[in-house]
Every structure is written in structure tokens, then in C-alpha cells.
Amino acid sequence: MSENLAMGARPRFWVPGDWNALFGFGTNILVNVLVLTGLLRFVLKMPDAIVFGRILPALGLMLCLSTGYYAFLAWNLARKTGRTDVCALPSGISVPHMFVVTFVVMLPIKLATNDPIQAWEAGLTWVFIQSFVLMAGGFIGPYIRKITPRAALLGSLAGISITFISMSPAAQVFTTPVIGVVCFAVILANWFGGVRYFRDVPGGLVAIAVGTAIAWGSTVLGLGYGDLTLAKLVGSVSNFGFSFPIPAVGYTFDGFKYLGVILVTAIPFGIYDLIEALDNVESAAAAGDSFPTTRVLTADGVISLIGCLLGNPFINAVYIGHPGWKAMGGRIGYSAMTGIIVLVLTWFGIIAVISALIPVVAILPILLYIGMLIGSQAFQESPHRHAPAIILALLPQIAEWGKTQIDNALAAAGTNVATVGTAKLAQVGVLYDGLATLGGGATLAGIMLGAVTVFIIDRAFEKAAAFAFAGAVLAFFGFIHGANGIGIGQSPTVAVSYLVVAGILFYCSKYAEFHPMALDLDEVAAEAD
Predict the structure, then answer these.
(1) What phi and psi values does residue 33 have, to the nearest 5 degrees?
(2) pLDDT of residue 249
(3) pLDDT of residue 60
(4) Residue 58: which residues within 8 A CB-CB, separation 6 or more?
């Protein structure tokens, strides 16, 4: 049990548990910064002068503003409530968008023009548009959160955690198990098992130190498990130097010449950000910390806008993982300190040295741990009877992840689905069309399916019918179950199906007879409280 402050008293900025959360969350952010640095340098072939001199400094400032703001919100909540266990919302670069803006927006333009600067401009414009979608969404977000069941929100979020957050780190951990599995065990023993290391040195730091030692040891022995070399480390020092972010307003507006390409993904992914932020705010509320939804969403939009106008083509987002950092003992200081550290790393060119010094596989188990926590939270923080709805809410994300794997595998083979043919794929059990339809707008689709199921389970058939009708509208305009993006009549068959379901459910609400319903009385009482 935590001690409470006097109402309005000044909360502590730093507590011992913030060390654990700092190394856990900080390394999470570091992984993402290292990955996007690799995307910029090796996929888009951006000059180091742009990467280390313009983009990373702007990104560092954006992250510092974001983590500082959410630390302030947590401090304010702790002061108002008198609680000492308030944990700041985690935030950082939106990971799905990092890949979308790279491979869907910037890379095609880079290949078409052979000019990485024009690709950068398009990325800035993409974030510019998304920022305004987020700011507008901040005013409707609280209402959406109020009417949508927790199981639907957390279930869709769990789908992201299992697929796009956990699967890649898990695969990489087992690709290099000598480092990955060992580091994962170090983390699990500390964060789940309560094992204390060397005068309470944080488990995340111990894992990174152990993984780095194994990687460099294998380099000395000629095994090369971590793909680290002394030559790479020495070469990385050349990027040292102070770089302050400077305005890139002209570059941002120059990217509007690619508006047709940008709008295809900017608006739907802006809506995705809105829904994901709602999920994450709900996740924090389930863990005991209720933050104002409008302020969270508008802050993401404003901070992303500042970042893009200074040269950063990656959007800011509230992260999943709040319950994990809180369980580690994180409170307020871990968030602000992470931003300050990232600011120093990006402004002084230290990121290049870190990427050459620490093997990424030593850091990835932390993401896997967070995925485990978020996936389990959907079941732990929702009524037991809603478990089937959570499973259904997971499926669109799994379908989208599976489709992505198929697309990437075929691309690596120099072909694509259109060339191979969906009928031939279906002959070997790969139902590509079904995956594409089910996974279209996966986050929102999972929420709609989960909400309809929750209300059916609770026999609130009018509410279930209303969500099914909303699903029909969203499908018709391509927001869910649409493989070709937003437009009119994008998924008419799915829209009609949802409409029929809405009619059946509305009929049930008026005329159907029901079997006696046996609910868990303790569960119902807890919900009433």
C-alpha cells in the first residue's frame, strides 16, 4: 500500500522505482530511435548530415516535450488526488507509423525521384496532416471512450501488443538466443520474479550489460553474435557534434506536391492514432491513473506538429505499457528524465556510437515483456464474461500482421500477391483476401467487433445494434475492413453484412425471448462499485 499525500501537497518528482522504469522505458525509446536511424540511413539512403544534423535533433526535442508534458500531467494528478502511486503516461515515436511513413510514403518517392530530400519533405507533410487529425480528435475522444466497453478497447490493444509489438522482438530474441534469451531471463527474473541484482541495479540495465558483454565477447572469439565490430565503433565517433533543431517549414510545405500519395495513409492513420491513444488512456485508467483524454490527444497533435515543422517525419504518440512501467515502480520522474536523456543523445550525435556499441537484441526483450503485460491486462481488467469479446477483438490485428508477413515474404522473392494470385494462395490454405478484409483498419475493426460482442453477452442488444450499424458506416467508407483505404463504397459487402447484423440485434432487443442469464454476482457488484 502506498502512502498518500495531503490533498494538494507537492508530489515527489523521483522515487527509487523510477530507476527501473527509466532503464526499461528509456531502452524502449532507444530501440525505436536506433531502428528509425537505420531506416533513414540504410533504407532511404538519407545523408548523415540530414539524419544526425536535422532529423534526430528535431526528434529529440519532440520526445523531450512529450515526456515532459506527460510527467507534468502525472504530477498534477498526484497533487490533486494526494496519491503517491501515480505513473506518467509513456510516449514516444509511434512505431507502426515509423514503418508506414518510411515504406509507404517516403520510400516510393525516393525510388521515383532518386532524391532523399524530397522523400523527407513528403514525410514531414504526412505528419503535418496527421497532427491536425489528432488535435480534432481530442474533442470527440472522451465521448468515444465513454460509450465503448473496456474489453473492446483493451482487446484491440492486446492484438497490437501480441503481433506488432511482441512478435518481431520474440523472433529476433530467438534468432540470437545466446544474447536474446539470456537477457530475457534476466528481465523476467527481476520484473516478474522480484529477484534483486547487485544493490538493486535495475534489471533492464543488467540485461543490456550482460547482452553487450556476450556480444563483444563473441566478437573477440570470432563468433559475431551481436554483429558488432571495432571498426564500426570507431567510425561512429565521426558523428559527434552539437546539432540544434532549426525550422523546416519550407520543406514541410514543399511536400504538399505529393498530397495525393500522402492522404491515402495520413487520414486513416491519424484516426488509428486517435483510437490507439484512447486505448492507452483506458489502459492507464484500468491501472488506476485517469488522465484527461482531450488534453492527451491534443498534446500528441501539437507536439507532433512542432516536431515536423523542425524537420522530424515521425509522429509522437502515447505508448502502450503504462501498467508495466507502473508495476516496475515508475512514477513521474522516469518520463521526464527519459526525454532529457534522449535530447542529449540526439543533439550531440551519441546515437551513432550507441548503435555501434550495444546489440539491439539485448534491448528487445524489454519490448517483449511490455507485450506480455498489455496482452494480459485485457483479460485481467475486464469482466470474465467478456473474455470471448477480447478474443474477437484480437483477430483483426492478427490478420493484419499475417497479411504483412505474406506481403513482405513475396516482396523478398521479387513478386507480389497480384502476380501469384489469391486463388493459388488459397489452394495452400493462405486466405489472403479474408486476411486483407478482416485486417483492414485493424484497431478500429477490433474495437467494433469487441463492442458488439460485449453488448450481446450483456444482453444490451440495442447498444450492440448501434455499434453494428456504426460498423456498417465505417466499412462502407473504408475505415474498417477496407483493403484500399478511405473512399465511398470501399467495402460494400461487409457494410451490408454489418447492417443485417444490426437489424437482427435490434429485432432481438424488441421481440426475442431469452434463457435465464447466470452472471458472476461478485463481478457485477465490482462493476457497480
Answers:
(1) -65, -40
(2) 95
(3) 96
(4) 245, 248, 307, 310, 311, 312
